[in-house]
Design goal:
The protein is α+β, with helices and mostly antiparallel strands. The chain has 2 helices and 2 strands. Strands 1-2 form a two-stranded parallel ribbon. It is globular, with a radius of gyration of 14 Å. The termini are far apart.
């Protein structure tokens, strides 16, 4: 596995992830990213998802919900 990105992640899952992470091998745990965001089906995705996937990599039907990743810029580029 190259990377696993999970979103949207509610605060409770972030807490549970913090408890589970120490039980994984560090190399495996470093490949997993949890991105916070609203869980409503119509909600936009977290802009930070653009760090891991481009808008072009998504199905055409999913792109309207994921437009936030198009403008993603890492903090160092802002």
């Amino acid at each position: 596995m190259a990377r696993l990105v999970v979103y949207p992640v509610p605060p409770a899952l972030g807490f549970i992830w913090g408890l589970m992470r120490p039980f994984l091998a560090p190399k495996t745990a470093d490949k997993i990213r949890m991105l916070r965001g609203p869980a409503d089906r119509a909600s936009p995705c977290p802009a930070r998802l653009g760090e891991f996937v481009s808008l072009d990599a998504l199905r055409e039907a999913d792109r309207p919900r994921h437009l936030a990743i198009e403008g993603y810029r890492p903090k160092s580029e802002k």
